[in-house]
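USER: Fancy drafting a protein?

ASSISTANT:
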Amino acid sequence: MEEEDAAADPYLPYDGGGDTIPLQEIPRRGSNYAMSNGGGAASSTTHLLDFLEEPIPGVGTYDDFHTIDWVREKCKDRERHRKINSKKKESAWEFTKSLYDAWSGWLVVTLTGLASGALAGLIDIAADWMNDLKEGVCLSAMWFNHEQCCWTSNETTFAERDKCPQWKSWAELILGQAEGPGSYIMNYFMYIYWALSFAFLAVCLVKVFAPYACGSGIPEIKTILSGFIIRGYLGKWTLMIKTITLVLAVASGLSLGKEGPLVHVACCCGNIFSYLFPKYSKNEAKKREVLSAASAAGVSVAFGAPIGGVLFSLEEVSYYFPLKTLWRSFFAALVAAFVLRSINPFGNSRLVLFYVEYHTPWYLFELIPFILLGVFGGLWGAFFIRANIAWCRRRKSTRFGKYPVLEVILVAAITAVVAFPNPYTRQNTSELIKELFTDCGPLESSQLCQYRSQMNGSTAYTDNPNQPAEPGVYSAMWQLCLALIFKIIMTIFTFGLKVPSGLFIPSMAIGAIAGRIVGIAMEQLAYYHHDWFLFKEWCEVGADCITPGLYAMVGAAACLGGVTRMTVSLVVIVFELTGGLEYIVPLMAAVMTSKWVGDAFGREGIYEAHIRLNGYPFLDAKEEFTHTTLARDVMRPRSSDPPLAVLTQDDLTVEELQGVINETSYNGFPVIVSKESQRLVGFALRRDITIAIENARRKQEGIMLNSRVYFTQHAPTLPADSPRPLKLRSILDMSPFTVTDHTPMEIVVDIFRKLGLRQCLVTHNGRLLGIITKKDILRHMAQMANQDPESIMFN
């Protein structure tokens, strides 16, 4: 992939190179400064102010686009917890503080759940209203959508239940006529006008106010939960703009969903509320526990599936998931679902628009078409990932990517022009899924349910769907085939646009269309060939054997599984959608088949592929490292590199230290006893050194450019006229992780994954040899997979 200037694309963050490794040697002091680990002379230490015994503001924090140190954050939290426990018996106030600290985790997830549920309800209501605005307006009450407008009307008929005098199409309002070519053209024009208006407004708001509000957000949230810092990605501006533009993007009719972005919205809520509690605001690792719970709440309100949300957080997005996070995720998902149920955005007492219930059993023979739908889902997932990544890479490497507004307008215009003539692409994708999932019954007026009664040959909407199909069903099948092709093509170009765009709903729609087509085909096969041995045993003539809606549901799960490679959480989400426990086996068969077929073409899901495309430093726990390389093969410096940059424990001045920091962009430096011994003392972070020096100059008198810097417990022996030395021992990590040069890389990769390390030092017989960072491991893994090591790194 070509390197590109980060400034060229306002949507891409700039990486400060925080995890790159030191490769430059530091100049050494002259021999007139003798080193000593003992205390200095009384004259030189009596006036020494060890200001660093107090914590320095800013030390222990992280720069943007850097990785957190999980081990250090956990140690900080344990220390804070011990301090609170030791003080709680001193007074009633301290005891109250300890109670507040213990309950703050439950409070923050409660607030997150409340906010996520309320925002999801608001988004659902607003998106429904704006979606119907493309077709017409309710004269009796402007704020009603089409369905609500006709609720109170007494003039609707069974066949045309969505037509009522209160609802006027744009042709009726502007031309005064409801039928004819003129009204069709006017409605067509207004549909395109509103679609382009919504899309243009959405992309402009994202570009001007919150560039991070684009996309689904799940790849970035996975990266953030793995310990990466992206400042502003979960901020209040991103939350506000994402909520508004998500409604606009869904209403514009683009082939996208709101379910993925709802996870981002919930995580924004979790991040904002965590700042109210010092336990979470001052500890990046603890904050990620709240974000894990928030992502569970996001899926809970997206699908009305609280348990599925918890499993999604565990299986798909979380990096560190202790048991208490599981309980809090469950509670956050419960609160969010309760709030959304109280709002009742769809007026059906359900949390989602396409909730269905099936009452007919499935038969063993039907596993064959279910597995075939799984194969289709896996093939679609593999094809979509490759096509979408190729298009996104092309967007990044060509001039086309510099005009995000034009791209959105172009895709929205093509979508609107092609979608309007076909009723299945014109309607909201969630409504399409609802229609495809729904079983044919006496209350259904869909074209898919036009069956001819056997008794008198007249058209009737019967309870028994196993009848010969009417011409309306065949025309609906053709329209569904065209809708399938349209959705497949447009979803590839839509996911990755600079507007909020989820992938769950379009993938489910593609699978539901394919499933419904297979379901109707099976149903008609059973009707016309009921004497075949396949059907004879279990399907009597005229019996209700095949449920096409069930096939649509299985197809939707298979396609979503093929794209995301989710398994357990996906089955539970779909099971919670339908409330049918007996359909778990068909769902499991289809989802596992789709995963196996997809994995045969590439083991990455769409989110991992986008993480790799953006070059985020993410070590995927699902990816196995099977190579036989050793730590010395990966560590820096290599034989062709300059010597490793190190700091000596008491042989540098402030000027020399600042010179090193100004000349390099490294994230930290190993500290050694001396250049001769190369014995390791610890590791000091660049940011902490800079903050400590600035703080010392403000608070300490006598700190000059030629002041000695020491990392030991006691000051070195100095001449009497020397300026005051600067003690930096408290910012030194005395227990950095080390491996020997013969440690297999398989173990090193495992250590990085399980402990969340930023860097690891390499030694030989106790002497420092080199350093391995997270980015070195990612480069090495890319090299082993025959990829360009630099192409995967974030520029």
Q: What stands out?
A: The two ends are 11 Å apart (CA to CA). Residues 697 and 703 are 6 Å apart (CA to CA). The chain has three domains: 127-343, 364-453+464-614, 631-785. Confidence is low (pLDDT under 50) at residues 1-52, 452-464.
